[in-house]
Amino acid sequence: MYINRANRFALASIEVTPKDLKCEQRVISASGDRSARTVYDQTVLLKMGGRSMIETKISHSDSTDTLQAGFYQSALYLPGTFEFVALDDDAYQCQNEYCELLWSEDKVTFSPMLSYLECPNCGSPVVQLSKETPPKL
């Protein structure tokens, strides 16, 4: 796990294998003023660095939110919201060293005055991620 310089988000690499596409449904009991809710747990492989991995589960609020097979970078935007960005041709990362947030293609915006794709968080240029340009960790 990596926490960026501004301590606003943490990164972790995960892999979803074809056998991990199914989710297990479970109900979280009501507690206090919170009503009972259903969540869908999906098994993923969390990369711990090097060749080390652990199997863990992530929860989705809807069964249609499950991740497809592939490699993802998860960004935990503090204080606790996860965003999963697939490491494919549609992934971008901010180039500002104090931001470095990951974005999917539908979130970045084109700056017509400066002619580049910009980070929705800070307005700095973003770079498209690929095997040749992996995310900065």
- What letter string, H or E per element, gives the SSE order? EEEEEEEEEEEE
The CATH architecture of the largest domain comes to Beta Barrel
CATH topology of the largest domain: OB fold (Dihydrolipoamide Acetyltransferase, E2P)
Percent of residues in helices = under 10%
Number of domains: 2
Low-confidence runs of at least 5 consecutive residues = 1-8
CATH homolog superfamily of the largest domain: Nucleic acid-binding proteins
- Tell me the span between the first and last alpha carbons: 9 Å
Care to count the β-strands?
12
Sheet-strand content, in percent, reads: over 45%
Quick structural summary:
With 137 residues, the protein is mainly β. It is built from no helices and 12 strands.
Task: Considering the chains and any ligands shown, give keywords for the structure.
single chain; 137 residues; mainly beta; OB fold (Dihydrolipoamide Acetyltransferase, E2P); 2 domains; seven-stranded antiparallel sheet; three-stranded antiparallel sheet; 50% strand; globular; disordered N terminus
Topology (SSEs and partners):
Blueprint: E1 2-3, E2 9-16, E3 23-28, E4 37-49, E5 52-60, E6 70-77, E7 81-86, E8 91-94, E9 102-104, E10 109-111, E11 116-118, E12 126-128
Antiparallel strand pairs: 1-2, 2-4, 2-6, 3-4, 4-5, 6-7, 8-9, 8-12, 10-11
Question: Can you put this structure into words, describing what you see?
Answer:
This protein is an all-beta fold and 137 residues long. The protein has two domains: 1-87, Beta Barrel (OB fold (Dihydrolipoamide Acetyltransferase, E2P)), CATH 2.40.50; 88-130, no CATH class. Helix content is 0%, strand content 50%. The chain is built from no helices and twelve strands. The protein has strands at residues 2-3, 9-16, 23-28, 37-49, 52-60, 70-77, 81-86, 91-94, 102-104, 109-111, 116-118, 126-128. The strands form three sheets. Strands 1, 2, 3, 4, 5, 6 and 7 form a seven-stranded antiparallel β-sheet that branches. It is globular and about 50 Å long. Mean pLDDT is 76; it is low at 1-8.
